[in-house]
Amino acid sequence: MIEFVILLGVIGGWFIAVTTLIAMLLFGKMWGLIGVPLLIISVELNKFLKRRYLNVVVSNSPRAREIAKHIFEMNELIILSSYAAALFLYIVVQKYVEVIIKVPPG
Fold first, then answer.
1. Nearest partner of 39 among 6, 92, 85, judged by Cα
2. Contact in structure between 87 and 32 (CB atoms under 8 Å)
3. What pLDDT does residue 44 have?
4. What is the rounded distance in angstroms from the CA atom of residue 7 to the CA atom of residue 26?
5. Exposed site from 26, 28, 49, 102, fewest CB < 10 Å?
């Protein structure tokens, strides 16, 4: 179950970063705000899963409970840092890369 939780955090972080970055590159800087609702939903989902997991699965072992708390906190950090990474990558792409699309005539 813990592996699923870690995988969920990593996949969620990548999803937020990619969605935010693509929206900003395609539609402009202000579309980066689309990542904020995704960020809020992901953090709330993580908190919900944390409460549920801690109450159901690891109620017997205090050590396992502490490890699970740290893993869920790590997931929140991954999610938050992925949004920040998307904003940083947007700046890098806009500053150093010029994308030119040439349409063939006719």
1. 85
2. yes
3. 92
4. 28
5. 102
Q: Which two three-digit tokens encode residue 93?
A: 């792409």
Best CA proximity match to 16, nearest among 28, 6, 24, 5: 24
Distance (Å, whole) CA 65 – CA 58? 6
Question: 35, 23 in Cβ contact below 8 A?
Answer: yes
- pLDDT at residue number 58: 58
Give the tokens for residue 97.
Answer: 């890369």
Q: Is 14 helix (H, G, I), strand (E, B) or coil?
A: helix
Place of tokens 């700046």: 91
Low-confidence ranges of the chain (pLDDT < 50): none
As to burial, measured by CB atoms within 10 angstroms (0-12 exposed, 13-18 middle, 19+ buried), residue 64 is: middle
**Look-up of token digits 């935010």:** 20
**The pLDDT of residue 99:** 63
Alpha-carbon distance of 59 to 44, in angstroms, equals 22
